[in-house]
Amino acid sequence: MRGQEAVTLGVSCPVSGxxxxxxxxxxxxxxxxxxxxxxxxxxxxxxxxxxxxxLAHEVAKDVxxxxxxxxxxxxxxxxxxxxxxxxxxKTIVARAAELYENRTVLNELRxxxxxxxxxxxRLWVAWPGGTTVIATVDAADIRRIDRMILRxxxxxxxxxxxxxxxxxxEDAASDILETTRIARREGVNxxxxxxxxxxxxxxxxxxxxxxxxHEVILPYTPAVKWPSIVISRSxxxxxxxxxxxAYEGMWHESREPxxxxxxxx
Length: 265
Hints:
Blueprint: E1 7-9, H1 19-54, H2 58-94, E2 97-100, H3 103-109, H4 112-117, E3 123-127, H5 131-136, H6 139-143, E4 145-151, H7 157-165, H8 169-185, E5 189-193, E6 199-203, E7 211-215, E8 228-232, H9 237-253, H10 259-262
Parallel strand pairs: 3-4, 4-5
Antiparallel strand pairs: 1-2, 2-8, 3-6, 6-7, 7-8
Helix pairs in contact: 1-2
């Protein structure tokens, strides 16, 4: 079913087969074809001359020459077609991104937030409230989080978020306070942001194999319908760095909650 599949996004790979595509291929690669053809001819001629000098039997010479020319031709074809095609396939795999159209699909295919957090040794997160996460993961998973950004329960943007998410401000503020208390007990560095916030989870953000999952907050839509996209650093390094810069900006603009703001819980 469409709703139970993660959509893999990636660069497209043209498949030859039409006259137009063939002409385009020839137009862009005629220099390489010429060079490979000349190299094939040179190798073939040298090999033919060598065989004629080494072999005495005429039939053996003819068979050897045919085999050599077939091998030379196959090598040229491999250079011009097979190798670029393999590189293109690798490019598709390397630049793939995962799109999950809602939270239900995300939980089914990524096996829930607890499994997701367990795939990384260190994490940075930014969540509107994080209550669902805190309620479903254990202390060991929470301790993997180095940075946690939540909405400021006393900030002006909380009212905008609750109106869009269909929640009361009081309930959302209470959830944020509880999430903060639990996370801080596990040693997580928690900060509050009173400015616009993007929902994102970074796995191993300071390594070359880092990744992020961005959940798109759709205004006036239930959270269960919010889509997510997963990007790895190796797939889209520029996009990865841009998202990390955005996170760093939120971190810089956020603040540490004071003890008097948290209360006793």
